[in-house]
Structures are given as structure tokens and as C-alpha cells.
Design goal:
Layout (H helix, E strand, L loop, with lengths): L4 E5 L7 H7 L3 H7 L4 E7 L2 E12 L2 E9 L8 H15 L4 E7 L3 H9 L3 E6 L11 E2 L2 E2 L3 E7 L2
Parallel strand pairs: 4-5
Antiparallel strand pairs: 1-2, 2-3, 3-4, 5-9, 6-9, 7-8
Keywords: Acyltransferase, Transferase
Protein name: GNAT family N-acetyltransferase
Pfam family, one: Acetyltransf_1
Length: 153
């Protein structure tokens, strides 16, 4: 199954906005970072099923800024395969670590990233209070960002 997952560099990033909106519900926020870093479409058996966008805070650190897989393909282990490919891709480029942030209300995401090898690195209090509309998941308001880090070296 790992061979059937490919990360393909994206040319027209705006074409992938529907996927980006799966992970970040606010289009205005996405527009702030959509043209930063490197974006890849996630291909499974030659069909686009998602997107991942990586930004760089330094030459040695990459952030998984947006990562989404169509809900009909979730729960099959494909996300974990994508993350493993991303680890290898950036390790081969000489990057030392990867970070990712998610909301305190994103319980499934927090479990996913920890199972993928990330560890809690920081908490940014009130990060999501700057969003234009409150975000709720499973009855929990998104207020704080939980940042995870994975050493690649």
C-alpha cells in the first residue's frame, strides 16, 4: 500500500483550496499561507485524495502547515503513510525536525500525530481566538494550539 501513495508537487495551489478547507475551516486564514513553502497533492492509486502544505521557519525545521485527506479515504492508514513519506522527504533534504500544530479540540488529530511519532512540544494559548468565527469540535471550542515535534535526524 505504501507504494500506492505519492506526494506530487502542486502547480496551481488555489485548485486545492477545497482540500485545504478540510483541515482549516477559514478561507481567509488559508489565503495568508497558501503561497508559502511547498505544497504536495496526495495521490493514492493515481487519484488525488488530499493535500499537504509545508512551510519553513528555518532551513532546519519544517512545519506541516495543512494536511488533509478526503474523509472517504480516512481510517485506512493512508495518513500515516503520507507522514512517513514526508519524514523521509525532508530528512533527505537535511531538515532536522518537523512540527505540526492542531487545536486543543482536535482530539483525533492529537492522537494521530502522537501515533505517527510526534511529541507535544508547546502550547500556544488563545491561538484560535483570533479566528473570525469560533470553531467547535466534539462540543469543545478550539482555543489553544497544541504543537507537536518529530526529530528527523
Amino acid at each position: 500500500m505504501a507504494d500506492s501513495i505519492k506526494l506530487t508537487p502542486v502547480q496551481n495551489r488555489n485548485d486545492y483550496l477545497p482540500y485545504l478547507l478540510l483541515a482549516d475551516e477559514t478561507e481567509d486564514i488559508i489565503k495568508e499561507y497558501i503561497n508559502e513553502g511547498e505544497m504536495y497533492s496526495i495521490e493514492y492509486n493515481d487519484k488525488t485524495i488530499g493535500v499537504c502544505l509545508f512551510t519553513f521557519s528555518s532551513p532546519l525545521s519544517v512545519e506541516l502547515k495543512n494536511f488533509a485527506i478526503d474523509s472517504s479515504y480516512q481510517g485506512r492508514g493512508l495518513g500515516k503513510l503520507v507522514v512517513k513519506k514526508a519524514f523521509k522527504l525532508y530528512k533527505d533534504k537535511g531538515v532536522h525536525d518537523m512540527v505540526v500544530g492542531t487545536a486543543n479540540s482536535s482530539i483525533a488529530n492529537m492522537a494521530f500525530y502522537q501515533k505517527a511519532g510526534f511529541r507535544i512540544d508547546a502550547i500556544y494559548k488563545d491561538f484560535f481566538t483570533s479566528y473570525p468565527e469560533p470553531i467547535y469540535e466534539d462540543g469543545i471550542q478550539a482555543l489553544d494550539m497544541i504543537r507537536f515535534r518529530k526529530r528527523l535526524t
